[in-house]
Amino acid sequence: MANNSILLVEDEVHLHDALKLNLTMEGYEVSSAYDGIEALHKMEQGYFDLIILDVMLPSLDGYSITEMQRLKNNHTPILILSAKNTSANKIQGLKLGADDYMTKPFNLEELLLRVAKLIQKSAPLNTTTSQELFTFSGHQINFNALQATTAQGELVNLTPKEALLLKLLIEHKNTVVTRERILQMVWGYSVFPNTRTIDNFILNFRKYFELDSKNPKHFISIRAVGYKFQE
Fold first, then answer.
1. How far apart are CA 120 and CA 122, in angstroms?
2. Stated pTM of the model
3. What value does the CA radius of gyration of the chain take, rounded to a whole number of Å?
4. Domain containing 157: what range?
């Protein structure tokens, strides 16, 4: 077996050490993180074939980490481990982009089997580049290329933050996304910009995509709460 790399994010030290030992014995290269912020740093610094992710973590929970990675177009397989064992918890994790979900306590042999299956399944995907496109009202957004083509044929170059905010709003179509959620998911977890920054981004989107920017149809402000995208 090739030395596939795994990021293990688990704050319970004894469980972390036991999992790391067993994964290493299986031939995997294992990197460790013990809280959410440390996990994000590790993900930014290197490539992993799989992320094993606890839900209840200090500083940032596993659900938020999963959603942030998918918004950033990181398709590394994520296996969630959690003491939260209801169907609602599992559905939430899978909806946010996790590839698998195991509840604690779990069978070690089953976990190792699922790890191997996830890495094997994702291997062909890691060698290809897919274009993420979204089309609405004649406009087309290419998230990978950081570009949009308006219904009038105008090419718009998007900043990475613009693309992340667009993707967040589009993936929560017809649902209000709060300002706090936007700041956490787009700007990160430590230093937040002034909330007027979000307003300026929304104004840009209206300029790009609305027929009448003063009477927007797609990018709607919900006073004192947040924003909503609708087709």
1. 6
2. 0.71
3. 20
4. 133-229
